[in-house]
Design goal:
By secondary structure, this protein is of the alpha+beta class. The protein folds into three domains: 170 residues, no CATH class; 64 residues, Arc Repressor Mutant, subunit A, CATH 1.10.10; 76 residues, no CATH class. The chain has nine helices and 13 strands. The strands form four sheets. Strands 1-2-6-7-8-9 form a six-stranded mixed β-sheet, sandwiched between helices. The chain has a three-stranded antiparallel β-sheet with strand order 3-5-4. Strands 10-11 form a two-stranded antiparallel sheet. The two termini are 32 Å apart.
Length: 348
């Protein structure tokens, strides 16, 4: 990467940022859905590189009335079932399948966030909703980023895609790879599952082309979690079924985390307080830039143990204008403003 901006085609992290910026700008849902993009999300069994959420525009704006912080599955259990009128919480909420004391903890946390109201009648905790939790999520799109999809990478990717398709937690599964000058893109010759879509991405031009359309997965039906698939033909595979309720809960919990964090949170795991850390922009988007190494750094490189790390001088942080606390804080504010711009209804 050069100081003028642009993504380094040899960096998988830079490629991932390019895919996120392209999706945020150019993803075209079949209807009037709003689009939210996040990166590095999933469940304990699987992590996706990029997630595109297709959302109901009105529901997305209503979601903002609950604030920017995410709700985990325990809090969602309370929010989605909170009644309009005062009701004893055990009568209002379905049996969670775990001890009620944990439900009470979630109730108090939701009340602390002004998401529900509580009161005590004798020794009984009653709850009622402040406002209905909206049905804001429509579809979840999972994208696996492999800029250099050689034969070895393709072989390693196939089992992951097979697991995603069998579980059908996402509505669509895609593979994004760097475009080449070949007449037929090499990825189309790879033995990938036919249900997975294929995107070829040109990071320098910030464009992408769908060269293979995915199959819509059955998110409203039970899924299959593949636990073990041996390489030989004589050993049996191990799997388990997951019900639709679990899938619905996981999808919304993932969407909540994606709503809160988006894809620009890379600065949270880097060191923007280093005097060499900058943001650089061009027509393809905004990227982190290390002036000391003249490159787009990864989170593993941009840390306090980096030999080039130099804290900002205290004098920089005492400036009131235009940096107000130093360049590092200014960079984080810029990224936060851009993130909030994608979540209509949030106050600045």
């Amino acid at each position: 990467m050069t100081p003028s901006g642009g993504a380094d085609p040899d960096s998988e992290f830079a490629f991932e940022l390019s895919v996120c910026q392209w999706a945020e700008r150019a993803w075209s849902p079949a209807d009037d859905a709003a689009v939210l993009v996040a990166r590095q999300f999933g469940t304990k069994h699987r992590r996706w590189d990029t997630i595109v959420l297709e959302c109901d525009p009105d529901g997305l704006r209503e979601r903002a009335t609950f604030g920017a912080d995410p709700f985990d599955s325990d809090l969602l259990h309370v929010l989605q079932n909170a009644p309009a009128d005062w009701t004893y919480y055990r009568d209002a909420l379905p049996d969670p399948g775990y001890p009620w004391r944990y439900v009470r903890e979630s109730i108090h946390e939701a009340a602390d966030r002004d998401a529900i109201e509580t009161r005590k009648r004798g020794n009984r905790i009653e709850i009622r909703r402040v406002r209905p939790y909206p049905d804001w999520l429509r579809r979840v799109i999972a994208i696996e980023n492999k800029p250099d999809l050689n034969a070895s990478a393709a072989r390693n990717l196939v089992p992951q895609l097979q697991r995603d398709i069998a579980l059908s937690l996402a509505d669509e599964v895609w593979v994004a790879t760097a475009a080449t000058d070949e007449r037929v893109e090499p990825i189309l010759l790879a033995d990938l599952p036919a249900a997975a879509g294929v995107l070829t991405v040109d990071p320098e031009q910030a464009t992408a082309e769908a060269v293979w359309q995915p199959r819509s997965l059955s998110v409203d039906e039970p899924g299959t979690r593949i636990l073990d698939r041996p390489d030989d033909d004589t050993s049996a595979a191990r799997f388990e079924y997951v019900d639709t309720g679990w899938k619905r809960e996981r999808r919304l919990a993932i969407a909540e985390r994606a709503y809160a964090r988006g894809w620009r949170a890379y600065a949270d795991t880097m060191r923007p307080d280093c005097r060499h850390f900058q943001l650089t922009a061009d027509e393809t988007g905004v990227y982190p830039y290390c002036a000391a190494k003249d490159c787009l750094p990864t989170a593993a490189e941009c840390r306090g143990q980096c030999p080039s790390y130099e804290p900002e001088p205290p004098a920089w942080r005492s400036m009131e204008w235009p940096l107000d606390g130093g360049p590092g804080n200014a960079i984080q504010r810029v990224l936060e403003r851009r993130r909030r711009r994608q979540r209509p209804g949030l106050s600045e």
